[in-house]
Amino acid sequence: MAVEPVFPSSGKRLFTALAALLGWAGLTIQLYLILHLRWTVDASLLGGLINFFSFFTVLTNTLVAVVLTCALNLRSSRGQRFFLQPWVSSGIAVSILVVGLAYSLLLRHLWHPQGWQFVADELLHDVMPLLFLVYWWCCVPKGRLGLRHVAGWMLYPLLYFAYVLLRGHVLGLYPYPFVDVDKLGYAQAFVNALGILAGFVLVALGIVGLDRWLGRRRA
Length: 219
What we know:
Keywords: Membrane, Transmembrane, Transmembrane helix
Strand content: under 5%
Helix content: over 70%
Oligomer: single chain
Shape: globular
Number of strands: 0
Protein name: Integral membrane protein
Largest sheet: none
């Protein structure tokens, strides 16, 4: 059942606006870097755009930026009401937290970005997960989540993994080394994906538990 969105007060609204700005800034910088690199090597810009949206990090940060923008109540719409439903915003909170945790545990040691790439990297993997968690804690209505929502949230990473396998089979390109079938084989790629899914479920259960606890306190 849909619920009416609750918009932040003045102080929270300022925080939400800043978080939204940083979210869109990180995505814009990353998109520019990808397209600029492809331009310099005379590669397809459309291919760069497709590659950009093939990362779970980018997709999830886009959802985060959309929620934060909707929370500013700049324009009332059906899409706004959808994204501001507690179960939707909470599912996105789970996903962005997994982005931050997975990057820190599995990917950070693999490269050392410099310059604007470092800025984009920090915004997308470190800053936005923390900012969106604060937004979720302070601005999303609590006490409305249940275990059934965890199953629904799992569809997002599962569908993404299916897309990654299909794209990799067709193009031979995988966005993350832990699901690179060409190097690891299907068995190890599935084991790695199941491990990340298990982490996703643990984070989701933590969010549901926090939601219930905060809901009782605020009641």
